[in-house]
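Hi P.,

Sorry for the delay on this. The queue was packed all week, but I finally got your sequence through. Input first:
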Amino acid sequence: MSSTHPGTPWPLGSSLTERGVNFSVAAPAANRMELLLFENGSSHAPERVIELDCRKHRSGDYWHVEVEGLGEGCCYGYRVFGPLAPGAHGFRPSKVLLDPAARAITGWDVYDRMLATGPSTNAHACLKAVVTEREAFDFQAHPRPRNSWQKTVIYELHVGSFTNRADSGVEEARRGTYLGLIEKLPYLQELGITAIELLPVFAFDPADAPPGRDNVWGYSPLSWFTPHACYSTEPDPHKARQEFRSLVAACHDAGIEVLLDVVYNHTTEGNRNGPILSWRGFADLTYYHQGEDGDYLDVSGCGNSIAANQSISTQLILESMRCWALELGVDGFRFDLGIALSRGEGLAPLEHPPLFEAIEADPLLSDLKLVSEPWDCGGLYRLDDFPAQRIGTWNGHFRDGLRRFWKGDDHSTWTLAQRFKGSPDLYKNKAAALGRSVNLITAHDGFTLADLVAYNHKHNLANGEDNRDGENHNNSWNHGVEGPTSDPRVIALRRRQQRNLLSTLLLARGVPMLLMGDEVGRSQGGNNNSWCQDSPISWMIWNQDQCDLDLQLFLKRLLALRRALPQLFNPLTAPRETVSKQPHEQGDIWRQWHGVELSKPDWAEWSRTLATSLHMGSRGALLWMGFNAYEKGLSYELPVPASPWMRVIDTSLPSGKDFPAQPVPFTGVDIPLESRSFVLLLAREEALNLSL
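Then the structure:
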């Protein structure tokens, strides 16, 4: 039998040494611990049990041991002993626990989630951690793209759903995998995407769902370190790390950054009746917010909330981020319900959350893109005062403002102007710095763009929850018919509205995010919460007969336009606004707002129209944009251009003419805008810079 040594508390998890493997895990309140070594992932019982002595194998809150003769592929778990806490929480030594810092997991063929609950033993049906390499990502061969926030366009996608269809062009063995996604990177490059945001790829339990359903999105992590094995082409637990690295390397080579949607706010262990799989068994009172009676305090909507204010939680999350950033090469993170991580004792919001302070002070994480949801399910919503200056936020107000304006709601015109120019009303009367606000109109949780203009109500019966799940307030509009229609007038109006929404999103100041498939009119049949749908409902569409290729071309040209003229559409410093026609600085770019008459924007509650222009000094206008959400066409006065006007976009025109490859000359002192349409004019000197 191989010898054991005291080992070291760092690094966390399992790590290779010259003699074997070092194991380290936090369990502050435990009084005894066993390390279980299994022959393989399918083993029903450990082949060796190593007792950890609290005098020899403990340093502070960490238990550790070094075992000679072990190496990569070793399968292991823990049993932890200690007192029960109020509410019957705490230590359950009958359960075999997964190392919270495990970088690979096995045992899926014997795993039974239900046996992780209750008093019975589950050694024969448990998941096991696997010892892996911890090599650094090869940044020399595949350097980070480091795209500036000014140039960043994010595309949110689900790894499994993106290539699952037989017509995706990906060979069957690679569909729905990390390697399958690599084959679609040229598609994203051609579209003009600079960053992909992956829905959770942390290992998760598909069985964490109601009976008869699977958890597909993965927003209930089983591990914060392990890539989800189902997205690998092989069952070997090491392959997921290798194939994920290959994906990141290919993305870097293509100039595309990889951002992860990460869930640190809760885990798959659920409420007090949930399974004991990992965190709960090691340090229940440390990792989870709890009341005095032992009930979990929940602002995640998933049964538990991680106490990120606790130093051990902070340390584990930091180590997870370093794992993904330094070992697997990702370029940034988007924190699901991130503001929940700012809560302290009793869920009180903290002005200086320990986790965010630690992230901002960590030099190893200093070059990453960081974004968060600014809300949680407990009602906390912090946007401009988000308690971390390096972390940008999803701007849900942008989404709602654009939807309400183009739907024709009251009190929406002034809001549209604020969102379009960088939401200064939300950021202390100053446009948000680039990277502070991520603008969106659609995301995974909600309607797709096609469904946003085709449904008034959610249609989630396929989820098996009697249509109770999903958001009820969508600010959507079906334009007269619920769902699919053959009415050419409704089809034309929906088509126009999709282009209106995309134009407003991509020509507004800020960092835009697009949802997978919006560019080709992907519909989910009105399902606005497809979290349990591993089916055509949630899969990307590739068959050209099903794709709106005209919309795809429109979006490509929008992205090319944005890329070609960043100083007009997404400048580093927002242009100042003035009503003066003779600004003092001749090189100064300044903005004016208009209605149907110049310099007379109509901010009344009933207004449905708006126009804006950008000027340089006193030379004349470089750009004019008109937004008409009114039910009738209107004529707008135009400012004097710096050089003759060229029409770039008019969403009221048929496909091909709505955004032609070459801008069209326009003459006249006013311009008609059809009902519910958007028009962009550029001065000829600016239009000549376009290559669409």
